[in-house]
């Protein structure tokens, strides 16, 4: 039995308990909030699995402008420079805020913060907690703070299946608890539901994350932005017992930063002269590794010379992950493969986290603020999650609940089934796309969206990726089209509502393939 508190004016409901959701809840205290999570508090979140840290321009040789320059370069011409500059400038404040909530960043003996270097950063600016276990340590500290905050009511084991709307007005949430339906009345909702890696066979995200927040917001009428930009991490641990759909452990690019090299089965470094070695941008490396695997080989990250017996001390989390897959990285090369790691697109928000629907805020990976452009710079994601959680909380604090209206009843949609969707998305909307694969995806996904059933919700998110991918007829950042290999001289971000996406999909798929095709 779930005890849903009755706040007659409607509480603020926060959906998701990764970094963005936890920060929003804490920053709203002492205002009452309900924090809703599908799993246990702070588990099944990408934040908790993050090995990188938080990028913050804190060094004496650094500045927010230098951090912005690196972010814009990685974003490949598609960042919203104003939004990016504004978010990056909040980094020092956010680090101090997290420390107030009990996060203990790694420090040098003299007490100064240790600043790490990651690929594509021109300064040392990554703060960590417990080395490569940063995400887990940060989430652990914030979960503890949440449990000690009386204004936060935590509801676990609850999945939000729909936002309840009445004529454009947000009235509540339709949730499932063990297939029983629960209606929560609220006019203010924060979606902090994370990414969509679960749509792909190979991902470093929790496997159930298929973009729930995007589905909820799109159905309610919110604009989506830049959905085609899905970032693959080049080096996920390719363990022998892996099967499609099961999340892969990450082998952080910090390992390559320490000198580990990429080799093929023969032990030969296969990166051609066109690549800037092991620290080339993620999309470039992911494509090179994928090509090697497609040609029938395997790829390994070899840290034996660079780190050897130092590996376990330097990377305790990764060492543990490797060992549980039967690999000792001190003496064995680590098998790796690309896997979906992060989604740059999402629900369009402003710099206070507001979506285009009144009363709906979105924070963290589910949102698209414009910070990341076409490709995210390493360790900017936890920064954005914390900054936007803080900002959304401040914005919400200045609003009132308004009169409570009992939401109208609605049938509980079925739990999502990803099994038919993953192969379509993986095959057609992966590292390399073209008109043929994209239109194939649209033709297969659209019937699921139109006919309903357990595939409908994940198919809707995947369809949005496909339509945005079809409309971007160039290659930029993480979006690589074999039929449009060049980058256009001038590009812009794109926003669309679900109606626009469905219209476009119907126009693009006039001759639909039968589901059995
Ligand atoms: C990594 O450590 O390689 C990933 C860091 C990130 O995705 O920001």
Would you mind describing this structure in some detail?
With about 525 residues, the chain is an alpha/beta fold. It folds into three domains: about 240 residues, FAD/NAD(P)-binding domain (3-Layer(bba) Sandwich); about 100 residues, Flavocytochrome C3, Chain A, domain 1; about 100 residues, Fumarate reductase/succinate dehydrogenase flavoprotein-like, C-terminal domain (Methane Monooxygenase Hydroxylase, Chain G, domain 1). Helix content is about 30%, strand content about 15%. It has 16 helices and 18 strands. The strands form five sheets. A five-stranded parallel sheet has the order 5-2-1-9-16, covered by helices on one side. Strand 6 and strand 7 form a beta hairpin. Helix 1 packs parallel to helix 12, helix 13 runs antiparallel to helix 14 and helix 14 packs antiparallel against helix 15. The longest helix has 18 residues. It is globular and about 65 Å long. About 55% of the residues are buried. It binds succinic acid.
Concise account of the structure shown:
By secondary structure, this protein is an alpha/beta fold. The chain has helices at 19-28, 46-49, 64-74, 81-89, 91-100, 134-147, 212-220, 253-257, 282-294, 311-314, 316-324, 380-397, 421-428, 435-451, 456-471, 498-508; strands spanning 12-15, 33-37, 54-55, 126-127, 152-156, 159-166, 169-177, 180-185, 188-191, 224-225, 230-237, 261-264, 299-302, 334-343, 346-348, 360-362, 367-368, 495-496.
